[in-house]
Design a protein that fits this description.
51 residues; mainly alpha; 1 helix; 0% strand; rod-shaped
Amino acid sequence: MDLFDGELGGRDEPGAGPGGGCSWFSVVIVGIFVLLAVLVHQFWNWVGDLF
């Protein structure tokens, strides 16, 4: 899994090398999206309970 190897350029970056690992940048971004999805789900659950 090499989502964002070579900084932000992905596999299109010419100096990225063979890759084969997941960078910290992609781990942080995926974590933020998961947290955001959980928060949105909880918010709509709370709004549904109000009505």
